[in-house]
Amino acid sequence: MVRNSDIIEEINDGNLFLRKISKTDDEFFFKSLNEKNLTNYLSLGPLKSLEHSRGLIKNYLKYWDKFFQFNYIIELHDVNKVKIGSISLWNVNWQHKRTQIGIWLIPSFWSKGLGEKSVNLIKKIAFNHLKMNRLEVYIAKENKKSITLFEKCGFNKEGILNQYLLFKGKFHNAVILVFLKRDYLKS
């Protein structure tokens, strides 16, 4: 298992930063996860209250301490620091050295290459620091933007799981996309 000192709490690529989520991100989470366009294919949101947001972040921090999930805030550092989304490594399986990625960006930051940069940074954390072998994402088949994002980042389609995801009372087929350490080492 990884030691606490191996967990990267902040990493950047130029002006794009990933940093460990903190209690002070509660208002950002609450506001962002109540945006309809953002939560169509997310298992969380809309959030019921600011207290709901605080509880969510409190759980994320507990999961971090238990080495089960690592949640980051995505920030742009230009003139000011601007929070633009979140990315996580979750459902970490240390025995089989695999984990899943989850990401969301505020819609005004979509299609600007920031999702790709964020995914590439989280790959560095997963492979170089956590010593993972396999990264997985499960995306609703209709969520073409997310599928395209991960394909641009080198993920390969591995299959379809029928009626695997449930959003707003409706089942969706999930596309499984995977990125392996051997492919990371080649790049």
UniProtKB/TrEMBL annotation:
GO terms for molecular function: acyltransferase activity, transferring groups other than amino-acyl groups. Residues 28-182 form the N-acetyltransferase domain. Transmembrane segments: none annotated. InterPro entries: Acyl_CoA_acyltransferase, GNAT_dom. Pfam families: Acetyltransf_3. This is N-acetyltransferase domain-containing protein. The lineage of its organism: unclassified sequences, metagenomes, ecological metagenomes.
